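Teaching assistant here, posting this on the class forum so everyone can see the example we discussed in section. The complex has two components, and the goal was to see what a joint structure prediction looks like when all of them are supplied at once.
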Amino acid sequence: MSAAAALSVSTGEAPKPRPLVSIRDVSKQFANGTIAVRDVNLDLARGEFVSLLGPSGCGKSTLLRMISGLGEPSRGTIEWPTSPHDAEGHASPDLGFVFQEPTLMPWATALKNVMLPLTLKGASKRDAEDQAATMLSLVGLKGFETSYPRELSGGMKMRVSIARALVTKPAILLMDEPFAALDEITRHKLNDDLLKLWWEQRFTAVFVTHSVFESVYLSQRIVVMAARPGRVMADLTVDAPHPRDDMFRTSAQYADLCRVASQNLKKAIAG
Amino acid sequence: MSDITAPVHVPHDGTDSEARPIFTEERRILGIARSTWPGVLAPIVIGIFALGFWEWIVHYRGIPHYVLPGPWLIAKTLVADWGTLSGSLWITLRITFAALIAAVTVGVALAIIFTQSKWLEMSLFPYAVILQVTPVVSIAPLIIIWVGDINLSLLICAWIVAFFPILSNTIMGLNSADHNLINLFQLYKANRWQALRYLRLPAALPYFLGGLKISGGLALIGAVVAEFVAGSGGNASGLAYRILESGYQLRIPRMFAALIMISVTGIAIFLLTSWISHIFLRKWHESAIKREN
């Protein structure tokens, strides 16, 4: 099977179940006039692993923040057909967000940091502690409950950040270049562990990255974006089975997939 | 030539318990860490030399004690007059700490109110600045006339001097929370109270404690300066009045004794506030952390 066939441009014609997120004609213009995102149409299916891949300035982070609800689109709508809505009709999906930096509270221990979303939702202290401790051990940080962020390495801090995002068992996990600041060895390890968590917990994952290799290794689907203005250039399906491991990372199939994704990215950069 | 077949050391990323940082306890001598000893000893040695020189020059030049008493005479006066002086010290201390507590309460409360409402901050902050920049010496007489009760007047003066650093530092601290963390609180739909309790107040703590260190000293200065202005006598007088009184009576050794007590009080307040700061921040804040390099 050739890689070009495996990594096909999806037509989006086939009938699908209702998506988790439906992004319709979304544009974002900042106050200074910059058009960060223009006319983006995207459906995210429940449970899929999607990467938003593009050069810096392509609006992938802006799009992610709009999905999270941190920024309103200037035009268009972002709908959550299957998620609960509040009294005013606004969707309130349960989501987790991982920033580019670990963004931990330096005054709180790893456990307290992971407990935060539960505490804010009004969970009892004991429940919050139990769930946070379970989540910390899931990300491989058992025994570090009482450590403060400054005592942890960059990779460990990112793990705490991921644990915090997943502790509420969200339907969707949004990640904004979470591993960009880490060294390659740590990044590979965290990629593997993230995939394992995704495989076990079945949340929808949206992963913003500028790394072709990372996006191919992780995702089932890569949305390639171009800059100025930020827009979607290609929607690629990564046709390789999960779970994936180092065997996949060193396979010829992976190399072929990366080459095709690179070509698409190059085209996107060229405009 | 490097040996490429040598096993590569794989850095840990947190999954191995051996990656836990190791904190070694520094050796202690008489309860004080070894590395802090030079910082304790050096000033003491300098102090002893200075006092010796002072005592010597007073005797050698025959300086009369109503001009410059030697340290030994001052020490003797301190012991002999301890009854009167300790009573005054107690009064000064009471005013100082009452003013500091009032400064902390009002400063933090105002800071919280200001950060909740931009309008209140815009309307009131300039007046807080005016209160701060007007020399307390110049408004103390007014306050004494208006308030009547002398202790309360002194307390108000000391409070005026002490409260601004707390206010301005706490405001800065409350506004300095990590922007991404603020976003995170928005994502989880935290209300104002939660954002204050779990994010803004802890983020403001190092700034507040910095303000407290400054205000502790200022409360003492405010209490002393105001009493100088008030100049009232009687049994219920603080250390500042003892200095004034000793000046009138040319009891200069006693004046020095009172002066030393004020200085020692100031140092004690500084050490106390520094210790409080250390207790609160030692676990997590950069300022309180000793580094190997």
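For the discussion questions: Residues 252-270 of chain A form the longest helix (19 residues). Chain A is about 35% helix and 20% strand. Think about how each of these relates to the inputs above.
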